[in-house]
UniProtKB/TrEMBL annotation:
Keywords: DNA-binding, Transcription, Transcription regulation. One of its GO terms (molecular function) is DNA-binding transcription factor activity. The keyword Acyltransferase does not apply. The lineage of its organism: Bacteria, Pseudomonadati, Planctomycetota, Planctomycetia, Pirellulales. It comes from the Bacteria. SMART domains: HTH_ARAC (SM00342). The keyword DNA-binding applies. This is Xylose operon regulatory protein.
């Protein structure tokens, strides 16, 4: 499995606001196996929660909580498509406060439940692998073996 998504510290946000850049780093690199909330992010920075939310809105056009949820969804999507972990386990590993919260956010953001997302990505990935595996000479060998 590839590494979980990480924050790139060389993004344009860092140039615009060091506090926002540090918050993004905390969210994307620090969200590990525990629900992270806006207050916990703000406590690690020299600003109040309200100031942090205002700076996020000014730089990114979204709230700190929305960024935390984007990170959680991103990690969950990767784990759903690349592992056989139970959805319950993925919700914990991705940092959701509960499996139900993950399901609701997934439905809102992706239009699918986590299980349906897994099934859809597995089918798409399986079809790509099958097409790649049966291309060119491999397909010819496969069809010759089946006829024999």
């Amino acid at each position: 499995m590839d590494r979980l998504p990480q924050f790139d510290s060389h993004s344009r946000e860092e140039e615009q606001d060091e506090i926002v850049a540090k918050a993004l780093e905390i969210i994307w690199n620090g969200l590990q196996h525990a629900p992270l909330n806006v207050n916990e992010v703000a406590q690690q920075l020299p600003v109040t929660r309200r100031t942090l939310d205002r700076r996020f809105a000014a730089c990114l056009g979204r709230s700190v909580l929305e960024e935390i949820n984007l990170c959680r969804i991103s990690r969950a999507k990767q784990l759903l498509s690349e592992t056989d972990m139970l959805v319950k386990t993925i919700s914990f590993v991705a940092g959701f406060p509960s499996r139900e919260r993950m399901r609701l956010l997934f439905l809102k953001e992706e239009g699918l439940s986590p299980s349906d997302y897994r099934e859809q990505t597995r089918v798409a990935t399986g079809a790509e692998h099958a097409a790649h595996a049966l291309s060119g000479e491999d397909a010819q060998r496969f069809s010759l073996r089946r006829v024999s």
